[in-house]
Amino acid sequence: xxxASLNIGNARTLRWTDPGVLAFHRQRLGGLDFxxxxxxxxxxxxxxxxxxxxxxxDVERGYCRxxxxxxxxxxxxxxxxxxxxxxxxxxxxxxxxxxxxxxEGFVTRTVRLNVDFLRPLTAESGTxxxxxxxxxVGRTVLLSDATIVDGRGRDVGRAQGTFMVVPAxxxxxxxxxxxxxxxREFLVEWGDTDTIRRASAGRTGxxxxxMIADGRLPAAPIAQxxxxxxxxxxxxxxxxxxxxxxxxxxPLGIVHGGVPATLIDSAAGCAVHTKLPAGYSFSTxxxxxxxxxxxxxxxxxxxxxxxxxxxxxxxxVADADVVDRDGRVLVRGTAxxxxxxxx
Length: 343
Hints:
The chain is of the alpha+beta class. It is built from 8 helices and 15 strands. It has a 12-stranded antiparallel sheet with strand order 3-4-6-7-8-5-12-15-14-13-11-10. α4 runs antiparallel to α8. The two termini are 37 Å apart. The N terminus is likely disordered.
């Protein structure tokens, strides 16, 4: 199975399999059979699963289980595992639990995802387990819950997802045989996040964010891994750019919903960070995203703009929109953030 392998220094080679293989099998199998076969290793892992060291280990009707090994390529600017990783795990587990009820010819799309962050993860947190379970199964809408537990068995995150049943899509007669399982790889490199922590000790949040935006401080490793970048900051505002890429793909051949959720968590969180005094950082305590349009390679570059709605000494709230090059809103979200002295 493709996976992410660590190289020397602050670099990692990300590896995955051509997602065209997944599309071939998804056209022929219902959700339960498709993901069971993936868990057994008969179907290649989804690109974003491979990139983030996620392993689908068990699927039953209404249930899904992932394991994930947090690594340095998933880290946010201050050294913790980025909230977007929680969102990708939760959306995956809750979504597959929902898809386990769906027959051939149909799939589910995420409509809404809410993630509550209970405890921070680090690259040394051990193997993380994320389980998804369906809470309500309807003809067109399914609700699922997800729990995330760290290597010591402690709850670190909880999530709820709403999923809509839609036709699988595609046109013409399906191919008689799957395409060759071509292997892909991409090298990511990142700077030392310790420099960001040291800079934060003596500079305001706005100064630190400005230094990342203009390249005087390194971007977060997770930004290199998933392919997005901080474009600009203002007082209570931050904007990120992202080019859709194959390594971001989900089983349906579109960008995984956890990727725009990662952008929203980043833009909203950095907008809050611009309001913080020197020596302070923040943690996201809750993230809610609503999904309006799918993102794929032909969507072109997307932009995520975050802005503070309410700023307090400890708790702040920020909104963010992911828009395409024509200005259409693809995903919208809100993050609640808690300020704290830099650890």
